[in-house]
Amino acid sequence: MTTEGRPLAGRVALVAGATRGAGRGIARALGEAGALVYCTGRSTAGQAGGMGRPETIDETAALIRQAGGDAVAVRVDHTRDEEVARLAERVRSEAGRLDVLVDSVWGADPMIDWSARFWEIDPSSLGAYLDQTLVSHVITSRRLAPMMVEADRGLIVEVIDGHFSGYRGHILYDLVKASLARLAYGMAMELARTGVTALAVSPGFLRSEAVLEHFGVEEQNWRDAIAKDPFFAQSETPALVGRAVVALARDPDVRRKAGQVHFAADLARDYGFADVDGRTPDFPRMFDAEAEALAAASAADERGRFLMWARYCQIHQDPARRDLAVRLAKALGLGELGAGLAPAAPPG
């Protein structure tokens, strides 16, 4: 592969949570772009993590090497400060530098009861959940960022879910994902006088291993699932968010994007890349169109009301989307409450 095809040659990246999904997609894209990639997580051959799935960081590293890249798999529990500290020392000793740090640690699906509202959650589970999903990110950045600050260069990426400011459907899920966006913002503020940039990136409707399994399809025949869920037509592979991180890592003006939340498909349009099939999905536009049609209809069934509520939750805090939010609130019968939660549109 030519140097032009390996724009990150000579750089070192670390992807925490590289086992599957967005983390694996990002690790593979960084490896294909020429970076040495440390793939970390809890799931290794013979040592499962907390998701009960078969993917491992060893497989991720192997996929990178098979594509001609260079990768190292390191089992790390990112909730344990001593393990992350050892990881940082290993990277410093072996590679001598760190240019890209991506934190995609999650592993908490089994810890959430999606049917429980905030007054019904089990308080005894809160500590472990927050350690896994939020504290682990703070520990990881705290231990690995010093190498980047010393060198006065680098990119830190928090992987979150949703580039909107609204609600994500469950109090604990929303709390953590919004907090990770805030973590990226806070780090960017404290890094402002350094050459290190921190930001957040969100994939769209991701065709992760678990999602493909849920729909009973594989990547080769993913379109068969559109009959089950029309929105699947605007889904994306993990490669898209991976290519987004590569584009950010090679952008000499990436500091313009510091502290912000960036949607992978928007970055694809900005930087001029696409998913593996040459498409750039536009899930938000499709969701808006469906929500508009449902709000305009005289009545909606249970699925329609769920979709309107889901879209209202996502957009209602965006002043530029106030008109749609108010129409959805009216269709849902939220009355003054719904209108009150939607801020006034900006002047002009």
Write the topology of this structure:
Layout: E1 12-16, H1 21-32, E2 36-41, H2 57-66, E3 70-75, H3 81-94, E4 100-103, H4 126-151, E5 154-159, H5 171-190, E6 196-202, H6 209-215, H7 238-249, E7 261-263, H8 264-271, H9 283-296, H10 302-315, H11 322-332, H12 335-341
Parallel strand pairs: 1-2, 1-4, 2-3, 4-5, 5-6, 6-7
Shape label: globular
Order of helices and strands: EHEHEHEHEHEHHEHHHHH
Rg value: 20 Å
Main sheet overview: 7 strands, parallel
Number of helix segments?
A: 12
- Output the strand order for the largest sheet: 3-2-1-4-5-6-7
Could you say what the CATH topology of the largest domain is called?
Answer: Rossmann fold
Estimated structural class: alpha/beta
Please report the first level of CATH classification, the CATH class of the largest domain.
Answer: Alpha Beta
Helical content (DSSP H or I, runs of 4+): 40-55%
Separation of the first and last Cα atoms: 51 Å
Low-confidence stretches: none
